[in-house]
Amino acid sequence: MLDEYVTLPRPHRVDLFIAISGLACGLLLWSFGLYTTGDRVFDQRWAALVPLAVMASTEAVRRIAPRTALAVGTLAITADQFTNGSLATVLMFTDVVYAAVVYGPPASARRIPYSTALITVGVTIGFLVWWQNAIALLVGVITGMISFLPAVTGAIVRNHREAADAARLRAEQTALLAEMDRAQAVVAERARMARELHDVVANHLSAIAIHSTAALSLDEPATTRQALTVIRENSVAGLAEMRRLIGLLRDSGGDAEPGAVPSLDALDGLLARARANGASGGLEFVLQDSRPAGGAALPAPVELAAYRIVQESLTNAVKHASPGTVTVRVGLGDGVLTVAVDSPYGKRSGPSAPGTGSGLVGMRERTELLGGEFRAAASGAVWQVRAVLPADEKAGNA
Question: For residue 236, is it within any domain?
Answer without folding.
Answer: no
